[in-house]
Amino acid sequence: MTPMSLHTSAVERLCLRNIPLSSFSTYSIGGAANYVALPETADDLAALYQDCKKQGLPWYTFGMGSNILFPDQPDPDMVFVSLKRFTELKTKGDKWFVSAGTPMSLLSLMGLSGGTDLLDFTFLLPGCLGAGIYMNAKYNHRQICDIIDTVYYIDLSSRAMSVQSIPSAECDFAYKQSIFQHHPWIIVGADLNIPVHSEEQIQYVSNLAPAWKERGNHPSSLPQFFSFFLGEVHALAGKGIPTPESMLDIIKYRTGKRHFDYPSCGSVFKNNYNYGVATGSLVDQLNLKGTEHGGAIISPHHGNMILNQNQAKASDIVYLMEVITEAIHRKFGFVPEPEIVLV
Ligand SMILES: Cc1cc2nc3c(=O)[nH]c(=O)nc-3n(C[C@H](O)[C@H](O)[C@H](O)COP(=O)(O)OP(=O)(O)OC[C@H]3O[C@@H](n4cnc5c(N)ncnc54)[C@H](O)[C@@H]3O)c2cc1C
């Protein structure tokens, strides 16, 4: 413990004050928060929660903010805990340990440098690993749970708030589901079931987190996220590691759907697999693409995305979500379940 931490509370030490949440959300939406904490280790994270408990301050933990809608007027007492500086990739025996704030897309570069295609699906998938595990993020048929061996978490209901572990097989992973949605558990990292490949890979991967923090870590800007990862695959291609077809397809798909052109949180609703038609197609059938409200618009390119096209408020996004919900309920007889989290 440093002399400073003896005298300063964790909230005081780790929080920035009066910070617009819009800069922590890929939606670029959210009013000014009194407290925004940026812990970089599990110890700091646990100390922060303990201090919040002691001071009676509520908290909200998040990663890149690519699946949440912050309020226009945040609760003045709320401590918003961003994990985006809690970024670490390291070897643990013959496996990789990755911390919760590490962008999932960095894993695709780890895979590329280690000669495996098992991590390709994380390429250009916005968000951090902690939330990826929490939401069981997916692309096509590949899900985050496919690459997880053990998850480490802090149980917020425990007094000690020490780090616990749970094997992937016990995490109740299913479509966009995990056990972490049903317990007050904050993920701090995970061992991947991806073997370490070579000394060259270790060297390359050890530079990824610092490079991301330095160059790519503008709070939650989708264009900067895209250009950072595109730059990295080009750099690898320059070193003789060509970009595989699967990653080129992802670039084509995501740029074709204009994923990085406007602030958004990706798909707003989950697909209803019982109904059997993707939500985006239902919105298309209802001719709702292009519907605008305030500064928000239902994407003309993807019916399940609502974009912030011109300084939209959270209330504009919520309004369009209600338009879609009512229309789907009336025409198709079910209420679509939101995928994004309304804070
Ligand atoms: C353009 C675009 C395209 C997208 N495409 C896809 C896609 O193809 N597939 C897909 O699955 N998703 C997609 N998403 C959504 C998003 O990428 C994922 O949901 C991602 O997992 C969110 O990560 P995040 O760090 O931004 O989470 P946040 O938005 O910061 O948080 C999401 C939720 O996770 C919780 N959480 C965050 N960290 C932790 C933690 N450490 N422990 C416990 N709970 C935590 C938060 O409290 C919140 O409830 C897309 C988003 C965008 C903007």
From TrEMBL:
Its cofactor is FAD. Belongs to the MurB family. Transmembrane segments: none annotated. The active site is at residues 267, 339. It is found in: Cytoplasm. Its main location: cytoplasm. It comes from Paenibacillus uliginis N3/975. GO terms for cellular component: cytosol. Cell wall formation. The lineage of its organism: Bacteria, Bacillati, Bacillota, Bacilli, Bacillales. It catalyses: UDP-N-acetyl-alpha-D-muramate + NADP(+) = UDP-N-acetyl-3-O-(1-carboxyvinyl)-alpha-D-glucosamine + NADPH + H(+). One of its GO terms (biological process) is cell division. Keywords: Cell cycle, Cell division, Cell shape, Cell wall biogenesis/degradation, Cytoplasm, FAD, Flavoprotein, NADP, Oxidoreductase, Peptidoglycan synthesis. The gene is murB. HAMAP family: MurB. Residues 28-197 form the FAD-binding PCMH-type domain. SUPFAM superfamilies: FAD-binding/transporter-associated domain-like, Uridine diphospho-N-Acetylenolpyruvylglucosamine reductase, MurB, C-terminal domain. This is UDP-N-acetylenolpyruvoylglucosamine reductase. InterPro entries: FAD-bd_PCMH, FAD-bd_PCMH-like_sf, FAD-bd_PCMH_sub1, FAD-bd_PCMH_sub2, MurB, MurB_C, MurB_C_sf, Oxid_FAD_bind_N.
